[in-house]
Amino acid sequence: MRTRHVFHAVDSHTEGMPTRVITGGVGVIPGATMAERRLHFTEHLDHLRTLLMYEPRGHASMSGAVLQPPTRPDADYGVLFIEVSGLLPMCGHGTIGVATVLVETGMVPVTEPVTTVRLDTPAGLVTVDVQVEDGAARAVTLTNVPAFCMGLDLKTDVPGLGTVTYDLAFGGNFYAFVELEALGLPFDRACKDELLAAGLAVMDAINASPDRPVHPEHPEIHGLKHVYLAAPGSDAHHSRHAMAIHPGWFDRSPCGTGTSARMAQLHARGLLPLDRDFVNESFIGTRFTGRLVGETQVGGVPAVLPTITGRAWLTGTAQYFLDPDDPFPGGFLL
Predict the structure, then answer these.
(1) Could you say which of 91, 176, 195, 201 is catalytic?
(2) What is the per-residue pLDDT across 30-49, written as a single tens digit (0 to 9) for each?
(3) Fold that domain 6-122+313-321 belongs to in CATH
């Protein structure tokens, strides 16, 4: 067997969305914080992301996480969230997948009925409570980084769609919220290509506008890669959506950071109070339950403290190789 690299992985899915957890083979990434490690990985190791996420080892909607030693004493593991679109500051479904993998493989001490896992992420410390029964993770609740609304009723001109009104919020990543009824498009998986094209067009227009988002405290977190296309009838109790993601795919899960941002947006509109459950439903019908448990500020911007509850399942283990003669050392997308 010939290989230039060996990467060890545990694969999982969170409410339909994959998380490939890389448990070994990358080595310790330089950086005093996970944010610095994210920057180093992006600048020097991004070929590993594409190798592990792109075809032929992954696919156009692949997502994963790279485990690292933590950079802070109050965390169990450091995590970098990798996917086809890039290296995310935070990933909700990925956090649920990572926590499930850590518990069910015994990589953290397990206590029943609840095991608490603390993850050091580029967006900050994320605390996760895993409900454990007979050694199995039954549900995972994460306390996310603060979420906040950046703007309501913003407008952008989108080729082919005209002037589009949207809200902008942050829940670990930036999200634009658009009502499908306003676009004249149906919430129908049979029309997924049309929906995806609309979401990407809105994304491109916002990123080219003066309202392109920049985090108020962490300017290295900037730009929009997610557009939440809200289905008709969605409200502050139960919201259905299709999440269009750069460079061109839909989230299969209800999206954890997107659920956090959605709750921040609804709270900013006065529609979602603290301590009330909110159900966020994905394009394939899977669900996360969110709740706002407090208020704070981020860079002078009013913010909320979100929790997200969902489930994940292990799907396999693997070792990934790179043959010296492989014609696609960085993978490819079709």
Answers:
(1) 91
(2) 999 999 999 999 999 999 99
(3) Diaminopimelate Epimerase; Chain A, domain 1 (3.10.310)
